[in-house]
Write a structure and sequence with these properties.
The complex is a heterodimer of chains A (about 325) and B (about 425). Chain A contains 13 helices and two strands; from the N terminus they run H-H-H-H-H-E-E-H-H-H-H-H-H-H-H. Chain A has about 325 residues and is an all-alpha fold. Chain A folds into two domains: about 120 residues, no CATH class; about 150 residues, no CATH class. In chain A, helix 5 packs antiparallel against helix 13 and helix 12 packs antiparallel against helix 13. Chain B is an alpha/beta fold and about 425 residues long. Chain B has a six-stranded mixed sheet with strand order 1-14-13-17-15-16. A four-stranded antiparallel sheet of chain B has the order 2-8-7-4, with no helix packed on it. In chain B, helix 3 packs parallel to helix 5, helix 4 packs across helix 5 and helix 4 crosses helix 7. The longest helix of chain B is centred in the middle third of the chain and has 15 residues. Chain B is globular. The chains are: A mainly alpha (about 325), B alpha/beta (about 425). At the A-B interface, helix 1 of A face strand 15, strand 16, helix 12 and helix 13 of B.
Chain lengths: ~325, ~425
């Protein structure tokens, strides 16, 4: 009998980072599958390719470049890769996608020391880089064609996103151009980034994560709630220029952002109070960018800006230590 | 009475394997090995020499100051050796007195032995020290010190939470010896001049709750059913759950008018008063997936662990033996050490159960923040530890950490927070900070 010695505790909850990442990937399956149904096999290539490439780059960066022999892949790079594939127009060139994945993993994550040390959501860093580097490709949205798996020429049938169209032509024209917008965004039947469109698929995935205890509800509720309230105010002030709040929260990546991007543990606050502040901040910035700023969407910028504030939010929302009596009364 | 629970905490599987196994009295071992340091505070001073004949209950080490208790021989026999052995708690060489049993028990009892009601409060406190009583839940803080509060106390809590997974001995003690536990508790209350007596038991011990209600109800002892959550048995959290009073950071229960004593300690108090028995035996659970038949035993202090685990039949794939429970207990490298006054259980764990795995990067998931019952931020403290920023760790209240292990239990990155925090606490103490 060989007795091992180790400090207490001697038992563990058996939750591991790998299991968490696997659960996130499982949660993204519905949206990933729908994207393939909407845009074809090429989307599957982008999704799977990004995941594999992301893991490969991370392995190379950690093992070869940073010489961390203890590094074990945990699946977080695959999550970043898949999320990035969700965040680009379906017809994007494979090499642009590859550049984006490279930037996301290297500049968004590994240069800070790998998972947990990165201040910004890596997938959003990658997307921002692509947005700046390939502005045309990143704003060319192919039309949805259900079950047309082998379509080749994405760029021929392009259109604007509903939010972009509304910003240019107003609500009346947009609702004419995109009939039954709420229903269509619910199932994902509108042009936009590849994986952001189907609200039902994203919510289903999030509920799985919530049920598994991987994520908490504060950030999504705060983010979506704030977006809803603020867009309601704008809509009440001028219903011909601004979409109604229900449509507003279903479009422009709010769901994907609030449910899967803003909730990234490494780049969001640790306490419940901090998460509320973070979510509300994301919502405010999103709406400001959409309605006051120059861009039609705003989720990408909103989350990255709030990521930068996370250390500050953590500082001001420190839990009160059990037994600490506040000084000065 | 409404029961609050505390913030934080975790829910490990409780695995009370020996829950329904009645207590067995283990026969007196042929040899006992007694660490002289069995209590918090100052260890006692040895008063016997090798070759001396000792009787059961005879003092073999005398208390050294107020925060110290004597040690008594648990058997009738001869002192054959005084040696140095690595102490499992401190990891430092410590004195061990080895006594070989020569005959049946010949008792040296504490006199007088009579009903607790006939003792004056001061006599009870004195008897607690004379009998070598310490907190038997595992902390081993001298009982008489707790019975001598320097502040006004109005509530006595008997701790029957037993929140550590696997351990069942306090449960069985309450089921089988409820009268004695209650009488011990009444003696504590008498010593403290306290009328309000509460017993806290986690709801996963319904038999114990019933037994304690039956024994305690008629004499005005209130039994409170507590939610099953780790670390419910932590003094500060128990007090909060049962009285809603918050012990200030760095303070003691008496600061909020409460004294907490473990139920097994209460029974030992009863025996010290009414039977004149010093603390020479205690209840021990031998449990875990590593044994075939989990046991609840009453054994003499100093009985080798090997003898007790043999009674429960060791399995093949044992990987760790822990004195105490799996959350806060101490792993031992050899079974050739005697059980101590604070050994509430011997938890034998198999390879599949034992926490293992290499440490990975913290992903900031904040599970540790949610789990910490002291409302600390273990992830942050650990980051500071990695950078050796000990002063900042102290500023972030590291010294309030109760080392319950909840953070390390939930950490998906396999970080050993508790190990790091224990090291950091020593550094901070050396730096002269509280």
């Amino acid at each position: 009998m060989n007795l091992t010695l180790a400090p207490a505790p001697h038992i563990h909850s058996h939750i591991s980072t790998r299991r968490i990442m696997l659960d996130v990937l499982i949660a993204l399956i519905p949206a990933g599958v729908l994207a393939v149904l909407m845009w074809g096999w090429y989307m599957l290539v982008l999704e799977v390719g990004s995941m594999i490439l992301a893991e490969g780059i991370e392995w190379f960066a950690m093992r070869v470049m940073m010489k961390k022999s203890t590094f074990r892949p945990d699946g977080s790079a695959a999550v970043t890769g898949l999320l990035l594939a969700f965040n680009v127009p379906a017809g994007i060139s494979w090499w642009m996608m590859a550049v984006g994945v490279f930037i996301a993993i290297v500049a968004g994550k590994e240069i800070y020391g790998g998972i947990g040390n990165n201040p910004f959501n890596p997938a959003l860093v990658g997307r921002l880089f692509m947005y700046i580097s390939f502005p045309a490709a990143m704003t060319t949205w192919p039309k949805v064609e259900w079950f047309n798996f082998t379509r080749a020429a994405f760029n021929i049938q392009t259109t604007a996103t509903p939010l972009g169209y509304t910003k240019l032509h107003g609500v009346a024209a947009a609702t004419q151009h995109f009939p039954s917008m709420v229903f269509n965004s619910f199932v994902g039947n509108l042009p936009g980034s590849a994986g952001e469109m189907s609200v039902i698929a994203l919510v289903a995935g999030f509920l799985y994560l919530w049920w598994r205890g991987i994520v908490s509800y504060e950030i999504p509720v705060a983010y979506i709630g704030t977006t809803f309230v603020l867009s309601a105010l704008f809509w009440m002030a001028n219903p011909s220029a601004y979409l109604d709040p229900v449509t507003a929260i279903m479009l422009g990546g709010v769901m994907l952002g609030a449910l899967f991007m803003a909730t990234d543990p490494a780049t969001s606050p640790v306490t419940a109070k901090g998460k509320w502040i973070f979510g509300i901040g994301c919502g405010v910035i999103t709406i400001m960018i959409r309605y006051v700023g120059a861009f039609p969407e705003g989720v990408n910028f909103a989350i990255l800006l709030m990521n930068a504030l996370v250390p500050f939010i953590n500082q001001i929302t420190k839990p009160k230590v059990f037994g600490m009596v506040r000084k000065n009364g | 009475m409404s029961v609050w629970t505390f913030m934080g905490g975790v829910h490990p599987q409780t695995k009370k394997l020996g829950k329904h196994v009645p207590i067995e009295k283990v026969s007196v071992p042929s040899k006992v090995e007694l660490f002289v340091a069995q209590n918090l505070g100052k260890p006692p001073k040895i008063t016997v020499e090798v070759g001396a004949d000792v009787k059961t209950g005879q003092k073999i080490a005398e208390s050294d100051g107020f925060v110290s208790v004597p040690l008594h021989s648990p058997v009738t026999g001869r002192v054959v050796e005084v040696k140095k052995q690595k102490h499992p708690v401190t990891s430092r060489p410590a004195e061990v007195v080895v006594i070989e049993t020569k005959s049946d028990d010949e008792w040296v009892r504490l006199m007088p032995a009579k009903s607790y009601e006939q003792f004056e409060p001061k006599e009870i406190v004195k008897r607690a020290q004379e009998a070598g009583l310490v907190g038997m839940g595992g902390a081993t803080f001298p009982t008489h010190v707790k019975l001598s509060p320097s502040k006004k106390v109005d509530t006595l809590i008997l701790n029957g939470a037993e929140c550590e997974p696997y351990l069942t001995i306090d449960d069985r003690i309450m089921v089988e010896f409820s009268e004695e536990v209650i009488k011990g508790g009444l003696a504590f209350a008498r010593a403290l001049g306290v009328k309000h007596i509460l017993v806290g038991v986690e709801e996963n011990k319904p038999q114990a709750i019933d037994a304690m209600k039956r024994a305690g109800g008629p004499v005005g002892v209130e039994v409170v059913k507590l939610p099953t959550k780790y670390p419910q048995g932590s003094e500060k959290h128990l007090i909060y759950a049962m009285t809603k009073r918050v012990v200030p950071a760095g303070g003691l229960p008496m600061d909020v008018g409460v004294v907490v004593q473990n139920v097994s300690t209460a029974r030992a108090m009863y025996k010290a008063l009414e039977l004149g028995e010093p603390l020479v035996e205690r209840g021990v659970s031998v449990t875990g997936e590593g044994v075939e038949s989990p046991k609840n035993l009453i054994a003499r202090i100093g009985t080798p662990v090997s003898e007790l685990v043999d009674l429960a039949k060791l399995r093949e794939n044992v990987s760790r033996v822990v004195l105490g429970g799996p959350m806060m207990g101490i792993a031992i490298s050899t079974l050739d050490i005697g059980i101590m006054k604070g050994t509430s259980g011997i938890t034998v764990l198999t390879n599949e159960i034992v926490k293992k795995g290499t440490e990975m990067n913290c992903i900031g998931c904040a599970r540790c923040v949610k789990a910490c019952p002291m409302m600390l931020e273990p992830y942050l403290l650990y980051k500071l530890f990695k950078k050796k920023r000990f002063n900042e760790m102290a500023d972030d209240h590291l010294m309030d950490c109760i080392e319950c292990g909840s953070c390390a239990y939930v950490c998906p990155s396999n970080i050993d927070h508790v190990k790091a925090f224990k090291t950091a606490k020593n550094v901070i103490r050396a730096l002269g900070r509280r």
